C-alpha cells in the first residue's frame, strides 16, 4: 500500500485550492505599488484575484493540510490504515460563508479516516500529531520573525499570518470537546492515567 494514494493527492489539491479561496478577503495582502498591468487588471471584472488566491493558499493551506498529514503518517507508522478524506459539507459551508461575506469562518475541510486496533497511547499520539504540527509551524514562524531582519514586507506578512493561523488551529483543535482532536487527546490521557 502506498503512503498516499492518487485520490488522496487529488483531495489534498482540492482542499488547498478551496481553503485558499475561502481565505481570500479574510487575509490582508501586502501593501505595494501596483504595476501598470496590475492597475489595468484591477479595473477588469474578475471572479477572483489569482495572486491573492496563491498568497492565501501559501499561508492558510499548509496548517490544515500538514495537520491532517500529521495524523495520517503517525497512524501509518503505528501500522494502522489511514486515509485522508475531504469533508465536502465542511468545505461547502466554508465556501457558503465566504460567498455571503460572513464575518466569521467555520472551516472543516477534511479528516483522516483511521482503522485498525491502536493502543490507548497510539490513539493519544495520533490525535495529538495534527495539533503538534500546528504548534511547530507556529513556533517556526515566530522564531523566523524574531531572529531574521530585513525581510520583505510580503514575507513578514506571510510569516505573521502563518504564525497566527497555526496558533489558532493549535488551541482550537486542542479543545477537549468532540469532535476536536483535544477530546481524543485528553480522553486517552485519562484512560492512560486511570
Topology pattern, helix = H, strand = E: HHHEHEHHH
Radius of gyration: 19 Å
Estimated structural class: mainly alpha
Give, in spatial order, the strands making up the sheet with the most strands. Answer: 1-2
Q: How many structurally independent domains?
A: 1
Low-confidence parts: none
By DSSP, the count of extended strands is: 2
Report the major sheet.
2 strands, antiparallel
Principal-axis shape: globular
- Individual helix count: 7
Strand portion: 5-15%
Q: What is the end-to-end distance?
A: 37 Å
Rounded average pLDDT: 90
Percent range of helical residues:
55-70%
Question: What key phrases describe this protein's structure?
Answer:
single chain, 194 residues, mainly alpha, two-stranded antiparallel ribbon, 65% helix, globular
Textual characterization of the structure:
The chain is 65% helix and 6% strand. It has a two-stranded antiparallel ribbon with strand order 1-2. α1 (6-23) runs parallel beside α4 (88-99), α3 (50-77) crosses α6 (153-173) and α5 (120-147) runs antiparallel to α6 (153-173). With 194 residues, the chain is mainly alpha-helical. It has one domain (6-193). The model has no long low-confidence stretch (mean pLDDT 90).
